[in-house]
Amino acid sequence: MKNTINLGHIINALLNDYDIHLLPSNEGVNITIEMHVQGITAISELTGDFELDFMYSEIWEDQRLNFKQLNICATNITLKGEFRKRIWTPETCIINSRHSSIHTSPSENTFIILYENGIVWSNFRLKVRAPCKMDLRMFPFDSIVCKLTFESYSFNADEVRLFWHEKPLTMMEIVELPDFELIGWRTDHERLQYPNGEWDRAMVEFKFARRYGFYLFQSYFPTSLTVISSWVGFFFDVRAASAKITLGVSSLLAVSFQFGSVLRHLPRASYIKCLDVWVISSIIFIFCTLVELAIICRLNHYEREKQIGSHAVNQWINQIRKRKNQNGNSSDSNVKVLRRQNISSIMNLEKLHKAGNATTDIDIASDNKEETSNEHRFFKWPTIDIRKLLVQLRDRDWTITAVQV
């Protein structure tokens, strides 16, 4: 009880005539900040942010809180977070956070330490959700950069200047995430121009590399096997068109389903990703198998029509040959008869020549039996050299130009 009364007297003595609106120094205050990261809990591609728990510390000097002259047996005093409302604070904030809160388990996780030389150390345990810069063009072989930006909300760079501690960030445990791996971090400092002046900024960036093993086994290997399965149709018989079509369409549906299951966990990016190129290439390969099937079926159809046509022509030609052979036998007999008639006529001409008839009057009777006149018409033939005629008739090659069957 005695210590409590003495501490209360000390605090009352320090805060006597203390104005929280005045800066500790007219030349501005240097604020040293540091972080102790407890863990990074989640990274979301859909919302483009990450969550982390860390302890945030601010250190500055305020000579109005120097209690060395009070000669107490302590070099520092630890106070609850409510004490912040009674002293000046730099009012730093995470300017780019989407949500931040102070842990309250079981009470608010804040404290302030006052040192005898006027140094103030303020500490918070925070849970913050902040944005990440994502470029998914190389997905799933991409990396993500997440950043926290600290800034004094009320004081410009002439009044408050932010600096990182010599050891600005400490990872209290190894970060283990199912989809990402922390590959590094870095701190930075800049000044940003606002309409009412310049503000100091302290930034820290976390760089994560995606673990792509999940996507290899869930996307790349299955689509590869699906494409190879679609090639099995090349070994099918040409007549198994229905089996080939079923295999090709099933492969297309399988690749589309696998691609859709991955896209459900990604934002709607308008640019082409590495995974898009792979899936589109797989779809093109499978589609080419269907095009090959259509071409082969059409060529096979033409070939069958050609074979059917040639078979019909061969049958027709064979029938014509059979008929020709049959007609040829009957025509030979007709030729022999004609040759016999020609030979008899030639012999008759030779007999007339031997009889000495130089000219011959041929009496031709009229075919019209109804004529009343019994007169005969006489035609006078020209003189014929029977020998020459016989030679010509004998040397002539008699052919049958038309045979009536």
UniProtKB/TrEMBL annotation:
The chain crosses the membrane at residues 212-236, 242-263, 275-296. SUPFAM superfamilies: Neurotransmitter-gated ion-channel transmembrane pore, Nicotinic receptor ligand binding domain-like. Its main location: membrane. GO terms for molecular function: extracellular ligand-gated monoatomic ion channel activity; transmembrane signaling receptor activity. One of its GO terms (cellular component) is plasma membrane. Pfam families: Neur_chan_LBD (PF02931), Neur_chan_memb (PF02932). It comes from the Eukaryota. Residues 9-211 form the Neurotransmitter-gated ion-channel ligand-binding domain. Residues 220-351 form the Neurotransmitter-gated ion-channel transmembrane domain. It is a multi-pass membrane protein. It is found in: Cell membrane; Membrane. This is Uncharacterized protein. It comes from Wuchereria bancrofti.
